[in-house]
Structures are given as structure tokens and as C-alpha cells.
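Morning. Coffee machine broken again, so started the prediction first thing and wrote up yesterday's gels while waiting. Chain of 67 residues, entered below exactly as on the submission form.
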Amino acid sequence: MHTIEQKELQDFPMQNRAYHDMKGVKKQNLPENICQKCNLPFTWRKKWEKEWENVKFCSERCKKSKK
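Came back before lunch.
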């Protein structure tokens, strides 16, 4: 059976759930993406919480030099 908190989290769209899912997670356990430019892994940041699924580059430098 789900608690009220779990039920509320299920009702959030995925992009709004990101921070709620990351609360209490140790830094070493944060999700990672692979940068499409440099092919290095980078971890989740709070500033990307609403768009984590769409983050493709690890930095502005990689984003600007994507060509």
C-alpha cells in the first residue's frame, strides 16, 4: 500500500519529480548522463532538475562546441 507521499509523487509529471526523487540521495548515487561531445559522465545537478531527461552536454563549453 502506498503512503500519501508516494501517491503524490506518482501524480507529478516526471520532470517535476526529479528533485523529489533526489532528496536524501547520496552524491555518489546520483544519476549520470554521458556528454555527447566529450563522452565523459556527468552527474545530476539541482539546476537541471526540471530538464534532466533533456540534458545532453556536461558544460557550456561542450554545448557551444557541439559542431
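The first strand starts at residue 32 and ends at 34. Going to sketch it on the whiteboard this afternoon.
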